[in-house]
């Protein structure tokens, strides 16, 4: 059996670059003097690493601050314009592609409806490839500046096989769709670009943990409520994947044995009661109707209809019971409710949801948990998708072209 690989000078250099780059990204701007105690590196190592990163165009000066009795200290930050990231959200009704700089400032976006409103895999691949071409052109970005592309999809993502990321989307009719290999076969840019594919709820979770309502928590659950329902479970600061990356399918936990039929084919799933599609169907059964052509507009009409109060009260109890399950199972310090439907319903339902959760959860773990709304808006899945190549970029010390790796980091 082979022994552990010996660390080389190259490994040490890359690790030092990664440490400095990550500190500047998440805690910057910082001075060279501040980087020492934050990284544990010597002043000589800091000086060498910073000089390299500045020479590579990855780090730039960001002003200065006075020091006690000495020369002003120069502040450093990761240069936002030194690279670009693409994020894709394969949503319920459309595909959204966004281009960001390294600070995750949006530079361009393209949205296109799903072909015939259906999850045709070949059609989705074409929309992603076309959207990527268009946002690059709109932002006048050089294709070589792209660090990678992250893609959030509905369903379970398995990146363990030779075809790269394969998507099992039972609710959308995707049975082992080889999405990564299909994308790489679509055009030359996608063939060469590092691709990272993950479940949309998990990309939402990454975004909220990095920049939103989950920031600072070590144990949290980020819930996505859209047409369907999912979750990202964070355990000790790391997304919990399970044995085959399917952990977090909260929407398909059973709320009522023999209950309403879910899109997955089972009965009584949480999604069959609180997902936007199911909520609208329950409203229709109660006599409601809408004129909007899409679910987002229809849900807005439901919220404006006084006669829908009973359906909303029922939904709050269902959702509160589902959140109580998360409290009892995972003992998180924070539960964040996001997704376009979750954010639309949130201002109206968050308080009754909290009360319902208190009625169903064990008192001791509930007392340690806060239930909050997401802070990043409906674009959080796309932002989170872009953090997938960004995380790899930071972990490798700013290396632009690592060997192509499938799946989420």
Automatic annotation (TrEMBL):
InterPro entries: ATPase_NBD, ROK, WH-like_DNA-bd_sf, WH_DNA-bd_sf. It comes from the Bacteria. Belongs to the ROK (NagC/XylR) family. This is ROK family transcriptional regulator. It comes from Streptomyces tabacisoli.
């Amino acid at each position: 059996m082979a022994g552990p690989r010996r660390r080389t000078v190259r490994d040490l250099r890359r690790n030092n670059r990664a440490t400095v780059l990550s500190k500047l990204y998440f805690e910057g701007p910082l001075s060279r003097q501040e980087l020492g105690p934050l990284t544990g590196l010597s002043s000589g190592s800091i000086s060498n690493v910073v000089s390299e990163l500045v020479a590579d165009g990855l780090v730039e000066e960001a002003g200065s601050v006075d020091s006690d009795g000495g020369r002003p200290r120069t502040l450093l930050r990761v240069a936002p314009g030194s690279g670009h990231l693409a994020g894709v959200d394969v949503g319920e009704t459309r595909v959204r592609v966004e281009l960001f700089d390294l600070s995750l400032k949006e530079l361009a976006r393209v949205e296109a409806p799903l072909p015939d409103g259906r999850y045709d895999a070949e059609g989705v691949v074409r929309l992603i490839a076309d959207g990527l071409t268009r946002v690059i052109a709109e932002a006048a970005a050089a294709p070589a500046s792209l660090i990678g592309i992250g893609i959030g999809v509905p369903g379970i993502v398995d990146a363990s096989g030779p075809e790269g990321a394969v998507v099992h989307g039972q609710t959308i009719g995707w049975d082992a769709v080889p999405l990564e290999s299909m994308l790489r076969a679509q055009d030359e840019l996608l063939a060469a670009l590092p691709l990272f594919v993950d479940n949309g709820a998990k990309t939402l979770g990454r975004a909220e943990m990095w920049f939103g309502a989950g920031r600072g928590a070590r144990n949290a659950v980020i819930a996505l409520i859209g047409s369907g329902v999912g979750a990202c479970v964070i355990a000790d600061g790391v997304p919990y994947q399970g044995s085959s990356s399917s952990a977090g399918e909260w929407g398909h936990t059973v709320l009522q044995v023999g209950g309403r039929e879910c899109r997955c084919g089972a009965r009584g799933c949480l999604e069959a009661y609180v997902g936007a599609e199911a909520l609208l169907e329950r409203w229709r059964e109660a006599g409601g109707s809408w004129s909007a052509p899409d679910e987002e507009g229809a849900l807005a009409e439901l919220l404006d209809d006084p006669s829908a109060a009973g359906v909303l009260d029922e939904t709050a109890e269902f959702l509160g019971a589902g959140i109580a399950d998360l409290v009892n199972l995972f003992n998180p310090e924070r539960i964040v409710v996001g997704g376009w439907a979750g954010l639309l319903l949130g201002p109206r339902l968050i308080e009754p949801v909290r009360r319902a959760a208190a009625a169903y959860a064990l008192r001791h773990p509930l007392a340690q948990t806060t239930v909050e709304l997401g802070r990043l808006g409906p674009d959080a899945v796309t932002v989170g998708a872009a953090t997938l190549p960004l995380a790899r970029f930071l972990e490798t010390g700013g290396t632009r072209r690592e060997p192509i790796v499938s799946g989420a980091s």
